[in-house]
Amino acid sequence: MFVQTGDVLDRGLEGQRMLKFLWALQDEQPDNVVLLLGNHETWMFTQEYRLEQAAVLPKDLCTYTKDFDKCIGAPQQMHQDQQKDNVCFMSPPQLGLATSSECFARAWSGFGWMGSHMLARLKSRQVKIAHMVSDTLFVHAGVTRGALELLDKPDRECIAEMNQRAFDAISHGFGPDDFVIAALQSVEGREGMSRDGPTWTRRFGNDYYGGLRRGVCEEVKEVVERLGVDRM
């Protein structure tokens, strides 16, 4: 069993090629390859990456145009004015020329060539938010105690519910309360980075001072026990 835990995108210029490779690998071994979403994949659908100045590198954007060399020869920054002089890769001709960031957005829309493929695999559960194998739960960032409460389902149904909510949010239109994929979360009236999103939470990572946050180990033990697994 091969489980890839997300963040294939935004790691250089080969993001889309790596995804295509993983999709092809999955088609060859459908029972043995599971692909999970990371926050850099969910970003494509929520478009929250637009809030980050360096979320998608200009060179990466150019891989979504038909003429990479032409695009890369005119350095562009995503949040500056760009010329609409690129032909987008696998984009309907009637949509016309576009900036490299527009080509990127077209590809990752629900009807685009990358977005539609990802949606199809989410629907078939070839791509998921979380996946259980025997006594192990695989997830990009983590399942928190708060996530289990927000899902409001019996504990053993929470992973299936999480995967369904991700598909619903991505296919039917992302909303600010879709904590399963959202980068931002409102907690006690204050909005900040998602505390309970399974692709976004930093709850289980070291804090800025190099140590675990208080209560983390106890929370992990509680979550894995409630979900019926031994590790996450």
Automatic annotation (TrEMBL):
GO MF annotation: an example: hydrolase activity
Domain of life the protein comes from: Eukaryota
Domain Calcineurin-like phosphoesterase positions: 1-55
Xref: PANTHER family: SHEWANELLA-LIKE PROTEIN PHOSPHATASE 1
Protein name from the UniProt record: Calcineurin-like phosphoesterase domain-containing protein
UniProt organism field: Zooxanthella nutricula
